[in-house]
Amino acid sequence: MNNFAILEVFTEYDFVTYYTVRLVVNDIEADLNETDKFYEKCNDPAHSHHGEFCVIVDVIDAMGSSVLGAQASLFRFEEAANALPPPVKEADKLLDIQVPTDSELRLYCMRITDEVVILINGEVKTENNALSCPNVKSYFRFAQSVAKAVDKLINEGSIRIDGKRIINEAGDEEIILYL
Amino acid sequence: MPSKFHEKAISRITPEQRALMVKSLEVISQIHSILDRKGISQVKLAEMLDVSPPAVSKMLNPGGNLELNTIIRLELLLKEDILNTPQKVAKLEKKKQENLEPIKNRLVQMPFMAIVWKAGEPRYFLEA
């Protein structure tokens, strides 16, 4: 019985590669990767936070299309991981995108460099502290696990960042995260 | 294989909207980078421009529609380029290469040379 996650490319832009993770539980691969799950539930005009979802997509699209890439200031710090949308002040400063001041939707992620970001999953956050929020608690914890697993692999030299790609010791992109 | 969910989500973004977001991100980021490097706060910039701080804040917010004449005024005040056309960048690069050419030629003509360079100190070229 094996439970792990596979790192895979979510979408690639000129200046940023966005990765995501696909869970494998009891040796069975999930039908959707984690970020597709987020998009599937939020990209619905009837969703209570569809407008906020569109803002997050706009930010992902703008960062990927700009030579500046995924600047650290455009991400929220969430312990070992990160989240989108950007803090309002930074979004106002740099993007032609209005992030609502009371934005509640969170997409947890891990910004590794200006060129590499791992998008994960998220939900509507209803409490100030992520761990006190029943909606996002599990996504927050999962993002921490992913971020720590990736950091560990980088630190022990099992994977490295090569421009816009994450590659393993053999030089290919098959990367498994034991969470 | 890009995510079909992402492709669908970005299909509503027009090329014009994307270009505006990207250009806006790059121009405003460039201005902030110059201000940070020169240690100029937005309040100080307001004084330099003889406008109120909220006016500067509005100007540096992409929604504030930063106009070309404002960018030129900022370039003159900050004594740095904010917008450069590819033509100008190519010409500047060519000029830089031309300026380096005599130095390169001089180095080639030196029969034997040692380079002594310690971090934080100027470089010395010593002929043996």
What does this structure look like?
The complex is a heterodimer of chains A (179) and B (128). Chain A has 179 residues and is α+β, with helices and mostly antiparallel strands. In chain A, the strands form 2 sheets. In chain A, strands 1, 2, 3, 4, 5, 6, 7 and 10 form an 8-stranded mixed sheet that branches. In chain A, strands 8-9 form a two-stranded antiparallel ribbon. Chain A is globular, with a radius of gyration of 16 Å. The two termini of chain A are 14 Å apart. Chain A has one domain. Helix content of chain A is 28%, strand content 30%. In chain B, helix 3 packs across helix 4 (53-59). Chain B has a two-stranded antiparallel sheet. With 128 residues, chain B is mainly alpha-helical. The mean pLDDT of chain B is 81. Chain B folds into 2 domains: 4-78, no CATH class; 86-127, no CATH class. Chain B is flat. The interface between A and B is medium-sized, with 32 and 26 residues.
Write the layout of secondary structure elements.
The complex is a heterodimer of chains A (179) and B (128).
Chain A: E1 4-12, E2 17-25, E3 28-29, H1 34-42, H2 50-65, E4 76-78, E5 81-84, H3 88-94, E6 105-111, E7 116-124, H4 137-155, E8 159-162, E9 165-168, E10 175-177
Parallel strand pairs in A: 2-7
Antiparallel strand pairs in A: 1-2, 1-10, 2-3, 4-5, 5-6, 6-7, 8-9
Chain B: H1 4-10, H2 15-38, H3 42-49, H4 53-59, H5 68-78, H6 86-109, E1 113-116, E2 124-127
Antiparallel strand pairs in B: 1-2
Helix pairs in contact in B: 3-4
